[in-house]
Each structure stands twice: as C-alpha cells, then as structure tokens.
Amino acid sequence: MQNNNRLTFACRAAVTAAVLTASSSVLAHTTFETSSMSEGVRVLNNVQIGHACGTDKRVIATSVVFPDGADSTITVNGSAYNGALTDFVSNWGPNIQPLFSRAVFDETDEKNDANGNVVGFWAGGGPGMPNHMVAYVPFRVNATNIVPTSCATSVRFRANIVDVCELSKESDLKVEGNAHFWTMAGLGTPYDADATAAASLTITRNLTSNPLPSNCGSGVAVEVVPSAAQVIRDTPIKYKGVQVWPTP
Amino acid sequence: MNNTTTRRAGFLFALLGCLGAAQVQAHSGSATMDEAGNKASFTALARVTCFDDGAGPAQFLVARIRDKSPAVTGLYVSLQLLKGTRATSVTDLTSGDAEYSEFATLAGGNGTYQLIINKTKAGARDFDLEWHCLTASNDHTGTEVIVDQFE
After folding, report:
1. Which of A19, A52, A59, B129 is 20 to 30 Å apart from A2, CA to CA?
2. What is the pTM of this model?
C-alpha cells in the first residue's frame, strides 16, 4: 500500500511536471523583460530566458541580434517601406549595450558592426540554465528618439534570439535539443523559426513632448526587422575573435 | 577585423570608453584620423544623443578637440556640431600642445546631434575628443553616442 502511494505520488508528480513543462513551453518564450519603453529615456532591461531545450538540457549560451537599421526591413502599418530608418528614428545604432554579469553565464560580449556600434550580444559559459528555471541576461537600451516630423507613434524592433543548449554545427542547429529559436520566420537563414517568435522592443512616441504633426492623423506604427544578411553575419557567437557557435 | 574596421572600432571604443564614467562627467576619447596620411577628406561622423538621465533635460551639447600630432603648416583639425537648423564649430589652432580647443557649444536641448571631425588636408592626426550634454545649469546629463563613419 505504501509502495502504491509512493507510486501514485510519483505518477502525479510526473504528470504535473509534464503539464508544467508543456505550459512553460507554450508561455515561456525568450523575450525582453521590458518590451515597450518611451522615447528619449534609457532603460535597464533583461533577456528573459524561459526554459532550456528539454528536461535534461541546459541553456549554455544565448545570442541576441537587433536590426542594425542599415539594411533592415521596414514596414509602416504593415506595408513595406523603402526609405531609411532615419525617417522615423534619429539615433538608432542600435542603442543596445550588454551589461557584464556572471549571474547566469560566465562570459558576455558585444556583437559589433563595421563602425564598432553594438548590434547585439551574446552570453555563455558556465553550468548553464536548467530547463525548469528562468534566467535574466542584462542589457541597457539607450535613449532612442522618434523624428519629430515623422508620423510614427511607435517603432517596434524585432530582435532574433537563439538559446543554445548544445554546441552544434550549422547543419545540426535544428536537431531537437540543440537550440531554441526565438527568431523571425521566413528570412531564409539557418536561424529562422518555423513561426515568427522574435522578441520585440517597442519605442513609443512621447506625444506630449513630441506631438504628431497635424497631417499625421492618428499616426503610424513602424516595425523594423533584421535583414537575412545581418542575421547570418551577426548570429554566430565569436569568443575572442574565433567562432565557437555554430561550430565550424 | 581588418585594419579599417579596427580603426573604426577603436574610434568608437575610444568614444565609448568613458561612458561608464558618465556619472563623473568624463566623456572623452582618442583616435587617429587618416593613418596613411593621404586622405584630405577623412571625416568622422557620429550622432550624440542628449537626454534626461535624472540630472535634468539637456540644454547644450558641448565638445572640444585636441590635435596631438606635431604641427604641420596648414593642417588643422576641426569639429562641428549640428542639430536641426543650427550648427557651430571649433578648430584646434595649435597642434601638438597640451591644450584643447575652446568648447564648441550648441544649444539644441534633448535629442540627436551630429558631431563631425575633419581636417584641412592630408596627414595623420592623433586627436583627443571630449563631449558632454549639459543641463541649463551646466550639470552633466544623459549622453550617448553612435558612430556612423570614420573614413
């Protein structure tokens, strides 16, 4: 009887764990702690890793890529826009600065464009984050300004995040348990998600200090997505100049 | 990184190097323009964002430059500040000494300024740059930088 009770408890615990795991898989995308912020202010933020790649897996690294604004895809109210990001945002570089912390991973570093501006970052090393935990990887979003003459009421930047659970070759990225892709779908890169799951960071216009021009009506919503070329260039993790993921 | 990228990155890292010390009002950095000494049109372009980091809204962007290379006749380094329809500039008229130029001051409030550094003719120039966003009471306030060009 006692054994039966133990077995029943074990079964219930297993079922509960399975349900919780399934729930967290649905709900716990890797996102940003703060996904919306007003223009003109600097905000401390975190990449919020919701789970690993399975019950016996740990997230050993995360790779974050923001659209650089140079060759990014821009839409306005959902329609393609062929102009420059500077038509809407006067100072996107991007405005990201990773913050060094060993709370989760041992190493953190920037990803830089040709001018040295930060276009993303990675963190990795150490024991990694177990599947049932949540981890925060800190970064700062610098003050971002919406162009006063534009009609933008918000600018949403989509950032690709890949949580790495196993160091694998590019050809094995999608092997179950190797990585989770919180990324755009359909870009045509090895890092594409099956359905878009990229994290969002939205800059909202301060309509008091930066009112819409009178010809703007209710304004427009702008979205910025990294180009395939940038994703391919910036997603790999390089440690001291040598690519360590995907493995060569 | 190739050499060009390294130099560009060096310029940014130099600019960013003191951001961590922003609280003690030190935004400064060093770089070398036109290392090969053959590009009169060499120009650095950056965007400086002034914002209220808690110290108060920005009233001014101020910046000054120091040309550390030995004096060459007719070769001077200048910086310009631009925002909207207003601009100002300053030149270090004595190369190689310990003195900075005067501060260039542009009262543009919060927002995005352009900062340009250029020189009068071909020749490598080591320079120091210092910049600050200040409130109306000259307190240091939020200052960020993005580099668009160093070539």
Report:
1. A19
2. 0.82
